[in-house]
Amino acid sequence: MVKAVVDVEKGIMAVGGELHSDEEALLIEMGSKQENLWGINIYPEMNGDKFIDFYSLINLRPAQGNRSFGVDDPQVKKKIAEIVNELIER
Q: Do you know which InterPro entries this protein is assigned to (predicted)?
């Protein structure tokens, strides 16, 4: 399992930090906005829907309507998956 944080606005991601919050901090330092950052876990050995897990502590954002550690908005999930699949060759 590899931790990653995806910026859904810029179409970039940080990969391989010990914590999602480390990757989030790196992207914020690079100019990303926190509200565009979503934590995921990537399972390189898996296929299909099991390749990306959308569970991360940084995803809990009641002010944005995300009341869980997952990604509640299907459109945001779709955007994350598109970015990941574009950036990772399988």
A: DUF5674
